[in-house]
Amino acid sequence: MLEGKVALITGAGRGIGREIALTFAGYGADVIVNYNGSAQKAAEVVAEIESMGRRAAAVQCSVEDYEACGKMISDMIAMFGHIDILVNNAGITKDNLMIKMPEADFDAVIATNLKGTFNTIKHMYRPFLKQRSGRIINLSSVSGVLGNAGQANYAASKAGVIGLTKSMAKELASRNITVNALAPGYIETDMTEAMSGAAKEAILAQIPLKRAGSTKDIAEAAAFLASDKASYITGQVISVDGGMAI
Ligand code: NDP
């Protein structure tokens, strides 16, 4: 499904990003595994992809750093020849009710989740235009779709990702570049592991399908959007949330 494609996935050393990287490789893609702090885990993902017969490279870069994103992208295009798929997966939470939320925690979440998504798209813009093809998949969240008490910073960043996605889709459609967002619900990763037992129970009660999602649920949706099967889909926010946003 993704043979001959090269995918850059941010935050691919662990969690949803790792699963997207392995799933894409399983469908035939070569994969650039971006990480920020998880060097060892990123190296393990690269080794696993290479054992599947695909090319892979781990590259350290904080998506918050505009210049570093530019260098990562130009270095990786030099190494792989081209990049066909960009998955903006890197993300953080710093949850708190607004009354207790430090300004720094608002800024940090926006800087990674929203500005980080801008930073990579900005540097992929010209290469995609020149190729006259490309796929951009941005990780939003059910919190960005519905809002969530205790997540004003995170929900604002993820709603911002939706606005960015739709605007980019309109700008790039005439060049055969599609831009879509995935809005996961409650997926079992380190991010949700950090929640209290009571908070997890409260969320599970809101899921019509009555179970948490897996990283595979997100990775398969990402693979579909990255593939030629989704060539007529752009500017969409696909909820993969067990029905939470109904
Ligand atoms: P995890 O907390 O498990 O992993 C976060 C990932 O983001 C890590 O790979 C981390 O890299 C990377 N990352 C964080 N900051 C940076 C940075 N500055 N530069 C580069 N990479 C960075 O999160 P999930 O896998 O659960 O989430 C992945 C995405 O899905 C996020 O955007 C999240 O908001 C979204 N999402 C997740 C949901 C869930 O229920 N889990 C629900 C809705 C959306 P490293 O370890 O190398 O620092």
Description of the structure:
The protein is globular and about 50 Å long. With 246 residues, the protein is α/β, with parallel strands linked by helices. Strands 3-2-1-4-5-6-7 form a 7-stranded parallel beta sheet, with helices on both faces. It is built from 9 helices and 7 strands. The mean pLDDT is 97. The two termini are 30 Å apart. The chain is 48% helix and 15% strand. Helix 1 (15-26) packs across helix 9 (215-226), helix 3 runs parallel beside helix 4 (103-131) and helix 4 packs parallel to helix 6 (152-172). The chain binds NADPH dihydro-nicotinamide-adenine-dinucleotide phosphate (NDP). NADPH dihydro-nicotinamide-adenine-dinucleotide phosphate (NDP) binds at residues 10-11, 13-17, 34-38, 62-64, 89-92, 112, 116, 139, 141, 184, 186-187, 189-192.
